[in-house]
Amino acid sequence: MELQTKISLKPSHNPIDYQSKLVLLGSCFVENMGAKLDYFKFRQVQNPFGILFHPLAIENLIQRAIAGQTYQQEEIFEQDGIWRCFDAHSDLRSASSKELLHLLNQRLKDTKTALETSSHIIITLGTAWVYEHSASGRTVANCHKVPQKRFTKKLLSVTEIESSLQNVIALVQRLNPKAQMIFTISPVRHIKDGFVENQRSKSHLFAALHQTINGHGGSYFPSYELMMDELRDYRFYKEDMVHPNPLAVDYVWERFKSVWISGNASVVMDEVDTLQKGLLHRPFNPDSEAHQKFKTSLRAKITYLQERFPFMKFE
User: Which stretch is the leader sequence (predicted)?
Assistant: First the structure.
């Protein structure tokens, strides 16, 4: 008896291993999968401008990073004693305008370097709803709780999204033609926009993304479909009934791993997992001989792993 509708997935011909360098940009799926990749010590750069929910914000970051178009004083603003930028998440802020500009422009440099050297670029789209800043006419990545009357809310058309995604692919291909691009759509529903409005938003993303992939390349991973069809039960959601809970994240990660993580990486992942659990171990008696031996063994295993993979860092 089958109690689940399963999505057929095939392993990639260009999987991720410990030689790979990843760039992850976009919405919450990036954060969830990025945390897993970080745990297993894969090399990655994740959301240098913080979470970016819509395709225009992702395109803007990639375009500015590649062009070296640095941020200037007039592109940031002060609110309640804190300097912010509409192109970045609220995590990127500073009490000093000079410090914020330095941070933004350093992150642009880091993004370009990561894109140039990446083997895989994972982009997750969250919503087609955007906010245009009335005074400047620019579409923002984050409103930073500035009063909504200063913005105009807009639903991007399929054509606008498709054009943005085509620009992203073209920019990356010119900079790094060997990079494997992986697209997905966040399973998180933006119900603050409204239930019907969320469905309209996701449908625009789906239509534009698949048209773009069919015409310009790239791969698609069905994170949205996995949540909606394989995990269609509220026991897989957090208390807000919107975000996937840890069990769901683990499930989607296993499905992602079956497609995009090389089988050859599994042995190393098991070694890393053993070390991570060892580092989290809290002994009853820290001064005991047994624990001292455990610590010595753990340090030896870390050293052995780092000799093979010098980029791995353990705390």
Answer: none
In angstroms, how far is CA 227 from the centroid of its own chain? 17
pTM of the complete model: 0.95
Distance of CA 47 to the CA centre of its chain: 6
Residue 228 falls within a domain, yes or no? yes
CATH number, domain of 61, equals 3.40.50.1110
Name the strand (E) or helix (H) holding 167: helix 158-175
Query: Tell me, what amino acid is at 80?
Result: D
Q: How confident is the model at residue 1 (pLDDT cuts 50, 70, 90)?
A: confident
Q: What distance in Å separates the CA atoms of residue 305 and residue 315, rounded to the nearest whole number?
A: 14
In this structure, is residue 6 part of a structural domain?
no
Structure token digits, residue 262:
């090389």
Task: Judge residue 122's burial from the number of C-beta atoms within 10 Å of its C-beta, 0-12 exposed, 13-18 middle, 19 or more buried.
Answer: buried
| Cα–Cα distance measured from residue 216 to residue 214, given in angstroms and rounded to the nearest whole number | 6
Q: In the chain, how many domains are there?
A: 1
List of residues 6+ apart from 166 with CB closer than 8 A: 212, 215, 216
The tokens describing 111, both together, are 């993004």
How confident is the model at residue 216, as a pLDDT?
A: 93
d(CA 103, CA 88) in angstroms, rounded, equals 11
Q: What are phi and psi of 282, to 5 degrees?
A: -120, 110
For residues 215-234, b (16+ Cβ closer than 10 Å) or e, as one string?
Answer: eeebbbbbbbbbbeebbeee
